Every structure is written in structure tokens, then in C-alpha cells.
Inverse folding.
């Protein structure tokens, strides 16, 4: 009985689509052209919708057309519903492609950690084509063409499954040549003779580290600034100064001898790297395979 009563007033999809198009164009003619139907059909759908709702949606003055106050409040919700329907359909169709895996992550993490390891995943899953999309902004799974992401934060993203990948420490790193240059680095106070390399977005990091190292006679804000940590690390490799390295991003450069750690003072970082995906798609075979490979790779290192 309840469902029957709902059907009596529930607007038809065609009627709502006609209302959205007319409301957007403020024209029956242009709405009919967009929906590829006749103007008479649009008029009929609007009239039927008004009868079902029991209220007027448009004021008509000759050819002029304007929304009623009730319609002005109704239109944004109708438009949002169609946008969500479009996005959901797009995701459904897109997710049917099980041969391509699109991974979103930060530029620095992709360059310094993920890309050097991707060969292992491709060897294990040659049936998948991998696309790496880098962005500084958190991925919007509802709108972005992304299957899974590796993000930096505290792991508390509503609606997403987040599996911990890497926790990090923060500590100074520099080129080996700075250890024996004209101003050799032996102790934290020696940093006063060198350029500090900063990353925009983490400008307070040097102050925090210098405080922990009991260095209080240096200005922690001077030096060079970079948008991305990968650029600050490259500047350190080139001997331009000393950067604050983070565990996941400098292990390759340390192993290759491009960077060294001059002190044994490191600070834990609250944020960490997580592999994330929407809860409803997190166990799709290709996403599950990628997540399990990431976690297994870390366990083996």
C-alpha cells in the first residue's frame, strides 16, 4: 500500500529530465532540441509533472518563462540527482574495463617509490595495463577516472577502505660531498653554514627538527623553497643544500650513495601512506591484486 501511494506522486524520469532542461535553458524550444523530442512532448511532460506534484513550476507570460519560487528550490536537487546518475553510470561502464588499472598518487611518491617497483607488479599481472595519474589533490573517486590511490594522511577518509602502507621518519639528508667540503657537516650546528631546502606545505619541518636537535641559534625559515619534495631532494643530491628526507622517498638515493644521513636524529611523522579505494569497489580483482602486491612488496623488503 505504501509503495502504491508513492507511485501516485513519484515524478517520472522523463518529466524530471524535461524540467531540468527547461529550467536550465528557460526555454521549451531549446529543451526540446537538447532532448531530441518535440516541444509538444516537453509541454506534456512538464504539465504531467506539475499535476503529480500539485504545484506550478513555471510562470508563463507569452513566450517568456521563469521558475516559480518552489521550482527554484527544487531544480538544484533534480540537477544534482541527474549528475549523480550520470557519474554512477560512467563509473559502472568504466569499471567494466578489467584490463586497465588507473592508480592516483603524489608526484614525489610516484617518482621515488612506486615507479621503480612497478616492474614487479607487471611481471605478476601482465594482463593489466597500468596508468599512473599524479596529483597533489586528494582523488575524488566519484568523478575522477581512478581505480585506486596511494595517499598521504591519517587514513580516516569516509567511504574509503584505507590500508596502511608506510610510516615515515623525517631527518636531514645531503650530498656526500658536503661532509668533507669547505664547511664539513659533523654536528647539527654546522647546518648554519649551509642552505636549508624547504618544501612548500611543510615549511615548519625545519623548525621542528632543529628544535629537537637543540639548535636554537639558526633561522629555520631561510633557504630555498620547492613545491615538491622530489625537487628539494634533487637539489640536495646536486649539493645545493640540506633537505629533510622522508623514509619512503630517500631509500633509493641512500642505497645508491647519492644522499647520506649526516646525523642520527630522526623524528616520527604522524601521517603515513595508505592504499585507498571506495569500499564498494575495493575488492574488485584488479584493485585487490594491486593492494596485495603493494603490501607483500613491503613485507619482503
Amino acid at each position: 500500500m505504501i509503495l502504491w501511494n508513492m507511485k501516485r506522486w513519484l515524478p517520472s524520469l522523463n518529466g524530471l529530465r524535461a524540467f531540468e532542461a527547461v529550467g536550465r535553458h528557460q526555454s521549451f524550444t531549446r529543451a526540446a532540441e537538447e532532448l531530441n523530442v518535440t516541444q509538444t512532448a516537453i509541454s506534456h511532460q512538464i504539465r504531467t509533472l506539475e499535476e503529480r506534484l500539485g504545484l506550478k513550476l513555471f510562470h508563463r507570460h507569452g513566450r517568456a518563462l521563469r521558475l516559480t519560487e518552489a521550482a527554484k528550490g527544487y531544480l538544484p536537487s533534480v540537477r544534482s540527482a541527474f549528475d549523480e546518475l550520470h557519474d554512477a553510470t560512467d563509473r559502472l561502464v568504466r569499471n567494466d574495463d578489467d584490463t586497465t588499472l588507473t592508480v592516483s598518487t603524489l608526484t614525489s611518491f610516484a617518482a621515488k617509490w612506486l615507479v621503480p617497483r612497478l616492474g614487479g607488479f607487471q611481471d605478476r599481472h601482465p594482463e593489466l595495463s597500468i596508468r599512473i595519474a599524479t596529483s597533489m589533490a586528494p582523488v575524488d573517486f566519484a568523478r575522477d577516472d581512478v581505480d585506486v590511490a596511494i595517499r598521504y594522511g591519517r587514513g580516516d577518509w569516509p567511504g574509503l577502505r584505507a590500508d596502511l602502507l608506510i610510516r615515515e621518519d623525517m631527518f636531514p639528508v645531503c650530498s656526500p660531498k658536503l661532509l668533507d667540503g669547505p664547511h664539513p657537516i659533523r654536528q647539527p650546528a654546522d647546518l648554519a653554514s649551509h642552505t636549508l631546502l624547504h618544501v612548500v606545505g611543510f615549511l615548519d619541518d625545519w623548525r621542528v627538527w632543529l628544535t629537537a636537535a637543540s639548535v636554537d641559534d639558526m633561522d629555520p625559515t631561510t633557504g630555498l623553497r620547492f613545491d615538491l619534495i622530489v625537487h628539494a631532494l634533487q637539489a640536495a643530491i646536486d649539493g645545493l643544500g640540506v633537505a629533510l628526507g622522508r623514509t619512503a622517498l630517500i631509500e633509493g638515493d641512500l642505497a645508491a650513495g647519492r644522499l647520506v644521513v649526516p646525523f642520527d636524529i630522526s623524528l616520527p611523522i604522524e601521517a603515513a601512506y595508505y592504499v585507498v579505494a571506495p569500499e564498494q569497489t575495493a575488492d574488485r580483482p584488479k584493485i585487490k591484486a594491486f593492494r596485495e602486491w603493494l603490501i607483500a612488496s613491503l613485507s619482503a623488503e
Remarks:
- The chain has a mean pLDDT of 88.
- The chain has three domains: 2-95, 100-165+272-300, 168-269.
- The longest strand covers residues 160-173.
